[in-house]
Write a structure and sequence with these properties.
Shape: globular
Number of helices: 13
Structural class: alpha/beta
Strand content: 15-25%
CATH class of the largest domain: Alpha Beta
Low-confidence stretches: none
Number of domains: 3
Mean pLDDT: 94
Largest sheet: 7 strands, mixed
Distance between the termini: 89 Å
Helix content: 25-40%
């Protein structure tokens, strides 16, 4: 055994682990980074990067195929699935050097490419290395949760970790799970002309109110996605050329490929946490507001912690832990300012809480203001008027925002900043957005908020009348 001592041991080289390792090393700490799989973790290799590259290819095909509305005549485009996936992997390879072992070793990080498990609360074994660190951070991420369906273990199903290795286009792709991953992959394949069925045990994108999901559901259906909601897959069978799904409706479905996208589960089973005082459950490692586990010297960040499982959340977690461990500064977790986005077309982006949740928490002092993209000139010129923006306020304080639009993910950052800085709606009055842009809806919805108060005020109208008469 090689005995290694460190100031900071990070288990997992995904988004959170890499941000933390980079910051700590540049601040002069002795950092050991342990990774048993690929550098960059799920986001780079199996998640955000490949899925968005696939969506980019599919949306380009959609733009060409729907160009008639602009007076442009084109033939229906053909595609090569293998070349599309080659494009996806090219984009992974372009970003990979930023997350590479070589880059972090140049920073001074000791990178060990083995799986890690705890010997005790202070010691971790990784290959032939026994590592003792003052502080340890678990950043092992998550993986696809496999549902308990009869026969599934006998079927050659796909997950996000194997989907992008396909080179032959599915004849008929079925997707189990109507969350963000399932919806994005379904739309991408449908826009490439692949027969696609989306199966959800409840309703798709159930974390959003139904009225927010309706424009996305319509878009999916228009693209050719068959959506089966409130549907359970009771049993599956592997045939010679097809996979047979037995549905709760009594019907059966024959598909060529099956993607399981039915939620995520934390990567904790290999860590030997039973050797420590660290508490955990099926949702992940238990932490307090400082992201410290029940073992004083061990922290946990990112997907391995219960809560929102986004790359930007993991990076945010890394910053919180970095301040405490390296700088000795107090830093606690907040969640109300963390945005989330589903990258469908149109996109759904939100931050804070919705209207119904706000009423439950604050009572009827809550208000909401709404603006449709149908009134936005840039949306009209671009033929992208599906969607709207809705803000939720308590007094002059913003408590939530939801945007349905082509570039909702770009627009939501504005509102995340407002909530993060605890600004008031009145602070937005001085903002002048350029015309014509989709971003004008951010100012327009504030104008709608004040318009109800200003133009409906009898007292203000009386005041204006006096001014006009005597001044």
């Amino acid at each position: 055994m090689n005995n290694i001592k460190a100031d900071l041991l990070i288990i997992g080289a995904g988004s959170g682990g890499l941000v933390l390792a980079s910051g700590a090393a540049q601040l002069g700490a002795n950092v050991v980074l342990v990774e048993g799989n690929k550098m960059g973790g799920d986001c780079l290799n199996y998640g955000c990067v490949p899925s968005k590259a696939l969506l980019a290819a599919a949306n380009r095909a959609y733009q060409i195929n729907s160009s008639d509305q602009f007076g442009i005549r084109t033939k229906i485009v053909d595609f090569d699935y293998a070349e599309v996936m080659a494009y996806v992997h090219k984009k992974i390879a372009t970003i990979a050097p930023h997350d590479s072992q070589e880059r972090f070793e140049k920073m001074g990080v000791n990178v060990i490419r083995h799986c890690a498990n705890f010997k005790d609360k202070k010691t971790v074994i990784a290959g032939q290395n026994e590592i003792t660190a003052r502080r340890t951070v678990i950043a092992t991420g998550s993986r696809a949760k496999i549902p308990n369906i009869q026969g599934l273990d006998t079927v050659k199903y796909l997950t996000n970790e194997t989907l992008f290795d396909l080179r032959k286009a599915p004849h008929h792709l079925a997707i189990l799970g109507g969350g963000p991953i399932g919806v994005e992959i379904a739309q991408a394949h449908a826009r490439l002309g692949i027969k696609t069925t989306l199966i959800e045990i409840n309703r798709i994108l159930q974390s959003y109110d139904t009225r927010f999901v309706e424009p996305v559901a319509k878009s999916l259906i228009d693209d050719g996605v068959r959506i089966l909601q409130n549907t359970v897959v009771n049993r599956v069978e592997q045939g010679r050329a097809n996979i047979k799904l037995y549905l709760s409706s009594g019907k059966t479905l024959l598909v060529s490929d099956l993607l399981v996208a039915a939620g995520r589960m934390p990567n904790i089973d290999r860590l030997s946490l039973s050797q420590t005082r660290i508490k955990y459950n099926e949702r992940g490692v238990q932490v307090n507001k400082n992201l410290r586990t029940t073992s004083h010297s061990v922290y946990a960040i990112g997907d391995v912690v219960a809560g929102s499982k986004f790359t930007h959340t993991a990076s945010y977690h890394a910053g919180i832990v970095l301040k405490q461990i390296l700088l000795g500064l107090p830093s606690k977790l907040r969640t109300n300012h963390i945005p989330q986005v589903t990258y469908s077309d149109p996109e759904i982006a939100s931050v804070g809480i919705g209207y119904d949740a706000a009423v439950k928490r604050f009572g009827h002092k809550v208000e909401r203001s709404f603006v449709s993209l149908k009134t936005n000139d840039r949306a009209i010129t671009d033929s992208k008027t599906e969607g709207f923006i809705e803000i939720v306020t308590k007094g002059r304080k913003l408590v939530g925002c939801t945007i349905i639009a082509k570039n909702a993910g770009e627009l939501i950052t504005f509102w995340a900043f407002i909530i993060a800085r605890k600004l008031k709606i009145s602070d937005i009055n001085s903002v002048i957005p350029p015309y014509p842009t989709i971003g004008e809806v951010n100012k327009r919805v504030v104008s709608e908020y004040y318009g109800r108060k200003v133009f409906g005020s009898k007292l203000l109208k009386l005041y204006v009348g006096i001014i006009q008469k005597y001044f």
